[in-house]
């Protein structure tokens, strides 16, 4: 049986994206603009004739709301849902809640970009019990909550879910919508497209624009890099993500 279609969707703009704050595992809602982006994402799915059979989301409301709004707009609000912490955004450690511009000014371009985009340099650990730590959050009662993560850590925790929960859906020929986050989707794209540890630093994913991957029997993309359903809007939004903090 042919492998199904995979659609990646980064949540719409959150209120902390709008305020230029490092977010990570802090569970902030969508901004008004983010709600509109999610609606538009669903319209793009509908217009492209992509009909998801199942949606996988993180445990964070910006991804959950985006999936709900987009699927409603696409008239696929009724499909099966699975949620898992392994799809969560990268934990931003002690930077969670900090302003990106102030962090850039305080620590300089090189350190700022190491923390934001290097493959294996995590930000400093968050203090347990502090305002933006998730160590006491009930939804993570069964796991050891990270105190910080680099992209390499996200790859390591995301791939077991990919293999055990998403790949079987694809192998069953289903159209899978995966609603997640900038850095958790970068981890998956790195794996799918075989991007090396340096090159991945330059890859940014825009909010709210579905990215379709067609996969062969070995789950390698037949359209490397995927296909954004609105390529022009994606190109502009990618630049904006890359320039955050400036
Ligand atoms: O703050 C965050 O959690 C992420 C995504 O919004 O930011 P960045 O793009 O800087 O990794």
Automatic annotation (TrEMBL):
Signal peptide: none annotated. Its EC number is 5.4.2.11. Keywords: Gluconeogenesis, Glycolysis, Isomerase. It comes from the Bacteria. Substrate binds at residues 10-17, 23-24, 62, 89-92, 100, 116-117, 182-183. It holds the Pfam family His_Phos_1. Pathway: Carbohydrate degradation; glycolysis; pyruvate from D-glyceraldehyde 3-phosphate: step 3/5. The keyword Transcription does not apply. GO terms for biological process: gluconeogenesis; glycolytic process. The keyword Isomerase applies. The record marks 181 as: Transition state stabilizer. One of its GO terms (molecular function) is phosphoglycerate mutase activity. Catalyzes the interconversion of 2-phosphoglycerate and 3-phosphoglycerate. Belongs to the phosphoglycerate mutase family. BPG-dependent PGAM subfamily. This is 2,3-bisphosphoglycerate-dependent phosphoglycerate mutase. It comes from Kibdelosporangium aridum.
């Amino acid at each position: 049986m042919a492998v199904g279609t995979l659609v990646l969707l980064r949540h719409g703009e959150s209120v902390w994206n709008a305020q230029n704050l490092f977010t990570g595992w802090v569970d902030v809602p969508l901004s008004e603009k983010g709600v509109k982006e999610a609606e538009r994402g669903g319209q793009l799915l509908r217009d492209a004739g992509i009909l998801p059979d199942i949606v996988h989301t993180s445990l964070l409301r910006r991804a959950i709301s985006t999936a709900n709004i987009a699927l409603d707009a696409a008239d696929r609000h009724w499909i099966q849902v699975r949620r898992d912490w392994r799809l969560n955004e990268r934990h931003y450690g002690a930077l969670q809640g900090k302003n990106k511009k102030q962090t850039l000014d305080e620590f300089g371009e090189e350190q700022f970009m190491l923390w934001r985009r290097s493959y294996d340099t995590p930000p400093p650990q968050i203090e347990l019990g502090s305002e933006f730590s998730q160590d006491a959050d009930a939804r993570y009662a069964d796991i050891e909550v990270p105190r910080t993560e680099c992209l390499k850590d996200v790859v390591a925790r995301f791939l077991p879910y990919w293999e055990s929960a998403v790949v079987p859906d694809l192998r069953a020929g289903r159209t899978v919508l995966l609603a997640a986050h900038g850095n958790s989707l970068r981890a998956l794209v790195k794996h799918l497209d075989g991007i090396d540890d340096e090159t991945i630093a330059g890859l940014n994913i825009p909010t709210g624009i579905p990215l379709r991957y067609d996969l062969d029997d070995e789950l390698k993309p037949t359209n490397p890099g995927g296909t954004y359903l609105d390529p022009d809007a994606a190109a502009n939004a990618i630049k904006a993500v890359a320039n955050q903090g400036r």
